[in-house]
Design a protein that fits this description.
With 255 residues, the protein is α/β, with parallel strands linked by helices. The protein contains 12 helices and 14 strands. It is globular, with a radius of gyration of 18 Å. Bound molecules: ligand 6CS.
């Protein structure tokens, strides 16, 4: 029905935003403030709709869609990359963040891991996130499950790498850059993996919130044309032009 999210907004209840706390995509400040590129865009779009009351819900990528369906939050604003499976389950807005994927590898990259074929051919493992886009896509491209052990969050993957349980990490290039800086980690980041699809996220809604979703999506499309959008994108290291050019149709084709 048309109730749900619209009713929450009308009655002044907070709109609950699911995030991972993975800069620069999402960030939870110590004081509970929600920021990062995706939440900053969401807050700006909601503001255009007259809504300023938002509440962060931090969770893992494996829980984002199940928790949305279970009404534990209202919008996923986490750099949740589009793929066939996700696009079938949620209503995705126009794309927000377009980015690339890289490996984190030990200094000097002794095993020479650079491409997806390297991962297939070499006897090594890379950490991915549970329920994450990377693991699913790598498997779809022929990497065996056994080479892709899963961890809950990026810092857990780093710990596994530092403990020598995995050779490297497969995550968004920008996540690896931010994690390295935050944690003072000693790893190298490979150039974007060419065989990997370009990733693009949108903000994800329940199918039952169609009416609210449509208004939000129209506001978001308009917001993407503003200089305020460009400022947010630049601040977090994303490309506004790439986001404007990307299409949901194309991104949703990814296996
Ligand atoms: O969409 C995903 O599943 C991925 N998105 C980000 C921003 N980081 C890792 C996660 O696996």
């Amino acid at each position: 029905g048309g109730g749900g999210l619209q009713q929450r907004a009308d009655s002044g209840q907070p709109i609950r935003l699911a995030i991972a706390n993975e800069p620069p995509y999402t960030k939870l400040e110590a004081d509970g403030t929600i920021t990062g590129a995706a939440p900053d865009i969401a807050k700006a779009v909601l503001k255009r709709m007259g809504i300023e009351n938002v509440e962060p819900k931090q969770t893992g990528y494996d829980s984002m869609i199940p928790g949305l369906q279970a009404n534990r939050w209202d919008i996923v604003t986490a750099g949740l990359f589009m793929n066939q499976d996700r696009c079938a389950q949620v209503l995705y807005t126009t794309p927000d963040l377009v980015s690339t994927e890289s490996y984190a590898v030990p200094p000097g990259n002794p095993q020479g891991l650079r491409t997806l074929d390297d991962l297939k051919n070499k006897d090594l493992q890379v950490a991915v996130l549970a329920g994450g886009y990377e693991g699913r896509t790598a498997k779809a491209m022929g990497v065996p499950d056994s080479k892709l052990p899963t961890y809950q969050q990026a810092p857990d993957a780093l710990q596994a790498m530092e403990a020598g349980r995995v050779y490297g990490i497969l995550l968004p290039t920008l996540t690896l850059e931010s994690l390295k800086e935050q944690q003072g980690a000693n790893y190298e980041i490979t150039p974007p993996i060419e065989q990997f699809p370009v990733t693009g996220s949108g903000h994800a809604f329940r199918k039952s919130d169609q009416t609210f979703f449509q208004k939000y999506n129209e506001e978001m499309k308009a917001f993407k044309e503003t200089s305020e959008f460009e400022q947010i994108m630049n601040q977090w290291g994303f490309d506004a032009e790439a986001s404007r050019k990307a299409t949901k149709e194309e991104l949703c084709k990814t296996e």
